[in-house]
Write a structure and sequence with these properties.
Number of domains: 2
Helix content: 25-40%
Structural class: alpha/beta
Number of strands: 22
CATH class of the largest domain: Alpha Beta
Strand order of the largest sheet: 14-15-16-13-12-18-19
Bound molecules: nicotinamide-adenine-dinucleotide
Number of helices: 14
Oligomer: single chain
């Protein structure tokens, strides 16, 4: 499907429509700071219209009461179309978000996998029978919530859009999705592909717009039966409050300050690339970024030397040139990241690599930040506690496994952790002690994650996405009890 990325409307009721007010915004290429596309800007009235269409479609049963196997086929077909257009989608994602092309290709592949995975379960959403004794039949059925609202951040637009939409659709919900205005293009494409695959009009609607307008309307809309929010803690709290006013259940996928714990016995051939990728992928703008390194004191100097070489050797450039690392998303984010580096230095951390704009003149106009290592970070420092959301690794040392566990848990977040060691006892001890939704051992984020339940402890959120557990967010259980006699 040819898509004009120069001007693109909202997707409501199966077609592209302009915002009712005619408002638009520019999506900016962060590699150049120049406009990439002009996108219709949804406001409250457009969210209302999308919700009304989704509601009508849901109540009609055209999707929610479709034979499950038919729903499965349409989701599978959507995955095929994502793969058909993978190259184009990846290039669009790379330009809109700034990420290296190969990372964008992975995101597109993962988006296709979400549609496949949930296609595979759409006809297996079974209830149970509960024994109550003679003369009584009790059974449960799983029913879709209804209209599911999705608020999506800019860092993985197609991947996170698909992560929420695919299980919601498999469950029989109709979806209204609000992508971030920083990077809305591939979420719009996703809806177009689903429609091309044959999803009935009104099943998947996409309304990009500003958080304060479209986002708040979606969160507070009485016609939204369930909400999935992915973004910062601050916005998540606001969204929860708005949703509470209409008793709307929420899934909260929030931020992180995830540690990679490296023991002196770790195999550094796999550890160093693993730790570097965990922080520098997507220029550090990943909720599950391994943004803290906790290294056993005996290995500190060796690890620092190898990491410094890696960071300094990374090639930066526009995402579509497929460098090692692209720019951060915006000028605001660029300033925020450099502010944090300065804060870290003022707090007493040592700048071991990076810390500024790269010297390359060609990159002057974009929002590029060098891969940055801050060593000597202590738990009280802001750079140890707060999510920077940029390519900045905060490094601390520990002397034994209990101190490692204590340091790993010393933030408000609890999304992911990595443990690198050859000693299975240390690995399992820490997997038990660390308070986070996911722990990886001698890898970080392996397997793409589609099948694995994902979500936070503590302020990283609640509810689970991915895997079979995600379906619980979109289904409610009805219990039916029947008394019978001869
Ligand atoms: P953000 O909270 O600023 O925005 C997220 C989304 O919420 C965007 O679509 C935005 O337009 C919308 N929004 C903003 N204000 C709103 C409001 N008042 N009401 C309703 N919606 C509003 O986050 P971001 O900067 O887009 O993304 C970065 C954050 O997202 C980081 O904290 C990151 O850790 C987190 N994140 C978490 C996950 C996860 O799965 N846990 C994944 C990706 C990103």
């Amino acid at each position: 499907m040819a898509v004009n990325v120069e001007r693109i409307g909202l997707i409501v009721g199966g077609t592209q429509v302009p915002a009712k007010s005619g408002a638009t915004f520019e999506s900016i290429d962060p590699s150049s700071g120049k406009p990439l596309a002009v996108v219709s800007q949804a406001q409250a009235e457009d969210v209302d219209a999308a919700d009304a269409v989704a509601r009508e479609t849901f109540e009609s049963g055209r999707w929610s009461r479709l034979k499950p196997v038919e729903r499965a086929r349409l989701l599978w077909k959507t995955a095929e179309l994502i793969r058909r257009d993978a190259d184009d989608l990846a290039r669009t994602e790379s330009r809109d978000n700034g990420k290296p092309l190969r990372q964008a290709r992975t995101d597109v592949e993962v988006a296709a996998r979400y549609f496949e995975f949930y296609a595979g379960v759409a006809d297996k959403l079974m209830g149970s029978t509960i024994p109550l004794g003679p003369g009584l039949l009790d059974y449960t059925v799983k029913e879709p919530f209804g209209v599911s609202g999705h608020i999506v951040p800019w860092n993985y637009p197609i991947q996170i859009g698909a992560r929420g939409a695919a299980p919601a659709l498999a469950a029989g919900c109709c979806v209204v999705m609000k992508p971030s205005s920083e990077a809305p293009l591939t979420a719009l494409r996703l809806a177009q592909l689903a429609i091309e695959a044959g999803l009935p009009a009104g099943v998947l609607n996409v309304v990009p717009g500003r958080g304060a307008e479209a986002g708040e309307r979606l969160a507070s809309h009485p016609g939204v039966d369930q909400l999935t929010f992915t973004g910062s803690v601050e916005t998540g709290i606001r969204v929860m409050k708005l949703a509470a006013d209409h008793v709307c259940p929420v899934v909260m996928e929030l931020g992180g300050k995830s540690p990679n714990v490296v023991f002196a016995d770790a195999n550094l051939d796999i550890t160093i690339p693993g730790v570097a990728n965990a922080i520098f992928q997507n220029a550090g703008q990943t909720c599950s970024a391994g943004s803290r390194l906790l290294v056993e004191a005996g290995a500190h100097d060796k690890v620092m030397q190898l990491l410094t070489d890696t960071a300094r050797g990374m090639r930066l450039g526009p995402g579509v040139e497929d460098p090692d690392m692209g720019p951060v998303i915006s000028k605001t984010q660029f300033d925020k990241v450099l502010d944090y580096v300065e804060t870290g230095r003022r707090e007493g951390a040592r700048l071991a690599a990076g810390g500024g704009r790269p010297p390359d003149e060609r990159l002057r106009e974009g929002y590029f930040v060098e891969p940055t290592l801050l060593d000597g970070v202590r738990p009280g420092m802001r750079v140890h506690q707060e999510e920077i959301f940029g390519p900045v690794l905060a490094i601390s040392s520990f002397t034994d496994v209990d101190e490692a566990a204590e340091l790993a848990n010393r933030t408000d977040y609890g999304l992911l952790a990595g443990v690198w060691t050859r000693d299975v006892n240390k690995a399992l001890y820490l997997a038990d002690r660390i308070k986070s939704g996911q722990v990886y051992v001698n890898t970080y984020g392996a397997g793409g994650g589609v099948e694995l339940p994902f979500g936070g402890y503590k302020k990283s959120g609640f509810g689970r996405e991915k895997g079979l557990e995600a379906l619980n967010s979109y289904l409610q259980t009805k219990n039916v009890c029947v008394k019978f006699s001869a």
